From TrEMBL:
It holds the Pfam family Glutaredoxin. GO terms for biological process: cell redox homeostasis. InterPro entries: Glutaredoxin, Grx-like_ET, Thioredoxin-like_sf. It comes from the Bacteria. Gene3D superfamilies: Glutaredoxin. PROSITE patterns: GLUTAREDOXIN_2. This is Glutaredoxin. Residues 4-61 form the Glutaredoxin domain. One of its GO terms (molecular function) is electron transfer activity.
């Protein structure tokens, strides 16, 4: 299983939904709260070229946007598929 990092902010429904999805899939992940952590924010921006959470990084693939947009890409990546 590739390394998974989830960049979040507090009180974010999409962030919570992604955490639930990863947990249900049995995927171990590291959560990094980008609010108040400049290093995590800079890392997220470097990996995904976006400034807004949630961002999910699975291996070398970075996904961003609302949960509904990320969900199919996350599931494909967890199956070992490269998302388009």
């Amino acid at each position: 299983m590739p390394e998974i990092t989830l960049y979040t902010v507090p009180n974010c429904a999409d962030c919570q939904a992604i955490k639930r999805l990863l947990t249900r899939q049995g995927a171990a992940f590291t959560e990094k709260n980008v609010r108040g952590d400049p290093q995590a924010l800079a890392e997220m921006q470097a990996r995904a070229q976006v400034r807004i959470a949630p961002v999910t990084v699975i291996g070398e693939q970075a996904f961003y946007g609302p949960f509904d947009d990320q969900r199919p890409r996350i599931l494909a990546a967890l199956r070992g598929e490269t998302a388009a």
